[in-house]
Amino acid sequence: MSQLYLMISITDRRRVRKFLSFYEKQGLECALVTAGSGTAASEILDYFGLEGSEKGVLFHIVTGDVWKGVKKLLQREMNIDVPGVGIVFTVSLSSVGGKKTLACLTGGMDFVKGDESVLKDTKYELLVVIANQGYSDLIMDAARSVHAAGGTVLHARGTGMEKAEKFLGVSLVAEKELVLIVAEAPRKNEMMQAIMEKAGISTPARAIVFSLPVTGTAGMRLMREETEE
To answer: How far apart are CA 97 and CA 1, in angstroms?
Structure first.
């Protein structure tokens, strides 16, 4: 992969619609939206002009060039640098599971697929699986069949389903589950393949999967010991 990123936006839940509208104007119609809550200490909240309120978390896929343009417009039109508006950041993708998934994630963006981007000495990767609601057990069963230790499930709502359907060729529902699995880098492809086979686009789960490089870990000793055995 080359210059493809997961863009994460965190803002007050009351501003979510405004952010979604802004992103749609930039051609970023497909997104996942989930709920969160602020946990910062009161003095930090006061410093940044924030309230200890419920948050909205938005997930988009962007190319490097798209991010540069969106970042400038976030500063100019959304006043993202003003305390209290929110924060937006990107994480580089390392791989995407399947051509249809890649077409869906990059639909409408000028993107040429290159080699997978893997950070040097990265021992683990975070697998991100987006699927129809109710299929997290199936996804985890597929991942465990190739020695996944466990995962975390977040409930989210998808936007821009019509645009996603155009590239995937299947109908989608708005209610989604976001499954996060930390995998050893050598087993990542095997795990992604197992998930695609058992819960992929051709199944009722309609899952898509991509991975992000993990640059540091703690608490992974048990996974390493099981691998050595």
So the answer is: 11
